[in-house]
Design goal:
By secondary structure, the protein is an alpha+beta fold. The chain is built from eight helices and six strands. The strands form two sheets. The protein has a four-stranded antiparallel β-sheet with strand order 2-1-3-4, covered by helices on one side. It has a two-stranded parallel ribbon with strand order 5-6.
Length: 194
């Protein structure tokens, strides 16, 4: 599912590489936790999985990253976004729509899917994260945990094979943490690679 071979990445203006010789294989359906201190490259590594690096973030990349047998260097972000959904640490940095439905529909709309298919994906994504009753709520009225679930739902609406989460629990209270962990565990139980 994910194969990383001898991956190196250095941001412009930095003397040191952020990623140094990373080798990793992740099988379909695995649930993997990457740990390390702040600044060690966890976020950078996740950005290589869906093509933000090298397609959107500048820097010097060596090595090879393949997801679902697709070389991330040779494919578009549009193609990769349907394979790897990336949820960032702070949902406020990811959510930009004022209404939950609009937030979740944004990705499928950009794939030019039919209105019926978009509606189905929004319904399904909300159900998977336990937020079915919030379709027409304002995003700024949601709690931190609810916002994180909406950020996850917006990725699920793209029907990715892999869900990559960048410290999804770091800004949540204990109740919200349990809710997000339950959502992630259920997605993995359904066969999604986390």
């Amino acid at each position: 599912m994910i194969k990383i071979r001898n991956l190196h990445f250095k941001y412009p203006g930095r003397d040191e590489e952020t990623l140094k010789g990373i080798n990793l294989k992740i099988k379909k359906g695995e649930f993997i936790l990457l740990t390390g201190p702040t600044g060690c490259g966890k976020t950078t590594l996740l950005k290589t999985l869906n093509g933000i690096i090298p397609h959107e973030s500048s820097g010097y990349l060596r090595g090879k990253v393949t997801v679902n047998d697709i070389n991330t260097r040779d494919s578009s972000i549009k193609e990769l976004s349907q394979i790897v959904g990336l949820v960032f640490q702070s949902p406020d940095d990811q959510i930009f729509s004022t209404i939950v439905e609009d937030e979740i529909a944004f990705g499928p709309e950009n794939l030019c899917l039919s209105k019926d298919e978009i509606d189905k994906r929004v319904d399904s994504a909300l159900r998977m994260v336990g937020m079915s009753g919030y379709r027409y709520h304002r995003t700024d009225s949601l709690s931190g945990g609810q916002k994180q679930r909406i950020a996850i739902a917006s990725m699920l609406a793209m029907k990715p094979l892999i869900l990559a989460l960048d410290e999804p629990l770091s800004q949540l209270d204990p109740k919200s943490t349990r809710e997000i962990l339950s959502v992630i565990e259920n997605l993995n139980d359904m066969g999604m690679t986390i």
